[in-house]
């Protein structure tokens, strides 16, 4: 019985690297990195070796020639380290309510894809998200600046910045100049 369980465990552990590589696919859809169910279920799925190692430790079984105490001392921290290195920031941002893709305002701070925008003014921050396509939501503004992908466009006037053509979100303008995503045109 133990030998059968050891063989099944070895196969499950050999399958783990493919699960780890394939886990990236779970975040391929729009908004997937911001869906708590997707983030938490992916991390939980990748932690199944910890459950196996704990089971071996509780039962006192060796995994072939590896004593159960080594599975707990080495295997669990190694599995946790690999999963944290891969998805730690996704989990941390999700727990704090920070968007992992796009803009978010949390506790008077503005973030773009989980990274703090240091000088952005949270109280006046707004996203151009009602425009024709997803690319428009890459633009945002506060009372002083316009942002593209979280970076300020220093030459843009925040109060007059707008989409130039309703059916084409490549062209933007303020009172002084025209912008083509994301560069100054004129």
Detailed description of the structure:
The protein is an alpha+beta fold and 186 residues long. Helices cover 39% and strands 19% of the residues. The protein has four helices and eleven strands. It has a four-stranded antiparallel β-sheet, with no helix packed on it. Strands 8-9-10-11 form a four-stranded antiparallel β-sheet, with no helix packed on it. It has a three-stranded antiparallel β-sheet with strand order 1-2-3, with no helix packed on it. A hairpin with a 4-residue loop joins strand 9 (168-173) and strand 10 (178-180). The chain is elongated.
What is the general shape?
elongated
Oligomer: single chain
Q: SSE order in H/E notation? A: HHHHEEEEEEEEEEE
Low-confidence stretches: none
Instruction: Please summarize the sheet with the most strands.
Output: 4 strands, antiparallel
Strand order of the largest sheet: 4-5-6-7
User: How many helices in DSSP terms?
Assistant: 4
Distance between the termini: 76 Å
CA-atom Rg in angstroms: 24 Å
The chain-level structural class is: alpha+beta
What percent of residues are in strands? 15-25%
DSSP summary, beta strand count: 11
Average pLDDT works out at 89
Percent in helix? 25-40%
């Amino acid at each position: 019985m133990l030998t059968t369980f050891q063989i099944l465990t070895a196969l499950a552990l050999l399958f783990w690297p493919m699960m780890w590589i394939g886990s990236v696919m779970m975040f391929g859809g729009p908004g997937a990195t911001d869906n708590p169910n997707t983030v938490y279920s992916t991390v939980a799925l990748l932690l199944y070796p910890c459950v196996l190692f704990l089971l071996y430790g509780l039962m006192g079984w060796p995994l072939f020639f590896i004593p159960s105490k080594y599975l707990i001392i080495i295997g669990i921290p190694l599995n946790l380290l690999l999963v944290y290195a891969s998805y730690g920031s996704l989990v941390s941002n999700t727990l704090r309510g920070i968007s992992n893709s796009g803009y978010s305002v949390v506790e008077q701070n503005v973030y773009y894809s989980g990274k703090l925008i240091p000088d952005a003014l949270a109280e006046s921050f707004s996203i151009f998200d009602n425009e024709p396509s997803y690319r428009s939501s890459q633009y945002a503004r506060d009372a002083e600046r316009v942002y593209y992908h979280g970076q300020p466009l220093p030459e843009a006037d925040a109060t007059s910045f707008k989409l130039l053509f309703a059916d084409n979100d490549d062209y933007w303008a303020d009172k002084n100049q025209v912008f083509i995503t994301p560069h100054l045109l004129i």
